[in-house]
Amino acid sequence: MPYHEFECSTCIPERKKHAVTKVEGEDLTSCLPLGYLNTIPGSISERGCAYCGAKHVIGTPMKDVIHISHGPIGCTYDTWQTKRYISDNGNFQLKYTFATDVREKHIVFGAEKLLKQNIIEAFKACPDIKRMTIYQTCATALIGDDINAIAEEVMEELPDVDIFVCNSPGFAGPSQSGGHHKINIAWINQKVGTVEPEITSDYVINYVGEYNIQGDQEVMQDFFKRMGIQVLSTFTGNGSYDDLRSMHRAHLNVLECARSAEYICNELRVRYGIPRLDIDGFGFEPLSASLRKVGLFFGIEDRAQAIIEEETKKWKPHLDWYKERLQGKKVCLWPGGSKLWHWANVIEEEMGLKVVSVYTKFGHQGDMEKGIARCSEGALAIDDPNELEGLEALEKLKPDIIFTGKRPGEVAKKVGVPYLNAHAYHNGPWKGYEGWVRFARDIYNAIYSPIHQLSKIDISKDPIATDRGFLTPTLISDASLDDAVRGRTDLQPYTGKYDIVPDLRARIHPEFPRRQSAAQ
């Protein structure tokens, strides 16, 4: 077993089994790190909790819902406006979130009255919104508040409202993935089958595990519409509460993120006989194969093929341009969940990048299996790394860029490694053919950014950064300044006051246009 032991974690020997290096001849049984286990005490994990997985990932993208957390204010603050789940109703769910603000006295005497008061106040504050989701937190779970009973009371008093209760306190699972499961099962138990939809097509799907990050869902919905398919509901990006109550009438569940939403698909198959079809919206070939599969299910392959040919002809030349310039650049693929395997091979094949590491914070071993299988030999696979392990991996692997979340991404920037936000994107959407080109553009811009290149210079000890792709700075005196700013680079270096680095942009990458000095 090619375990990788981090120097910073030698005092936690259990961590050794959570990281492996994929070497020649290894199969999945001998190079799979331990995963989806309780965090080892002392390792200072960067994971989220089960409450976060339920509210932040699954629930909050529903657009026409008052999202209220029954617990301390910090829980709500931590899950508010941290992803770009846009919607077509003015982004109500991003602008507003509610908390009961449970404090010490409520822990002692109970907080059920406080919850009921907050529910009624929230509906009065937002009279156009008649739907609500209540999320339980650790504090109110421990004191035993009966949230379901309070919700029933309010619905009796206010007949035009409907309330969904998600009992997913932070301790309900090893990571946020436990919360994914909780809210999936709660939704089908409480709400699916309570609304009958209008069917307008012979081909009807639920689009599941899609969260409309910067418009991803709109891109995919456009493809389905061009194929003549009715999207009955989207679980849950830009999703409507009542549409999601009618999921039982779809002909097919099309599943994108298997890590967060396969549970509801499996239950819909068991309870209503709706088949499940896994797809992938990232990359030209995976997306094309997915559209063909959906078309094959309904017998409309020709419609799918027409879209594939049109989009590929339009966008493939642009992707090839970026692939030529990204060839061989090293990337750490540290996204957290299903993107681990959605992206692992396609960014190598279609963008020319080389994946040197994969990791997951909340993924299961099945996610790691697929990710390791799809990346190259030599890749370092890590389960639930902490900040110090991440920094050590960056020092060892020296990647050109990482794809990860905001917290580890900001740490990477401090050590000179650019990052793209794998969870909320930089300039999305990244799904679809145009979106995949947009992703490649963001990678190119991050790696070749002039500001990023400048950030690599340590002016305290490395004033002449000849190994960073710049012209050697010419040290000059005040008397020679006029000559220097006119573009002269042939001056003899000697100690002086000014430090001039002309034509930085042109030296960073040849694609940047060479600019003349204003003095010339």
From TrEMBL:
Which E.C. number(s) belong to this protein? 1.18.6.1
Q: Where is the Nitrogenase/oxidoreductase component domain?
A: 49-447
Instruction: Please provide, alphabetically and separated by semicolons, the GO molecular function terms listed in this UniProt record.
Output: ATP binding; iron-sulfur cluster binding; metal ion binding; nitrogenase activity
Domain of life assignment: Bacteria
Q: Which residues cross the membrane?
A: none
- Cofactors (names): [8Fe-7S] cluster
Query: What NCBIfam families does UniProt report for this protein, alphabetically?
Result: alt_nitrog_alph, ANFD, N2-ase-Ialpha
Name of the featured protein: Nitrogenase protein alpha chain
What organism does the UniProt record list as the source? Pararhodospirillum photometricum DSM 122
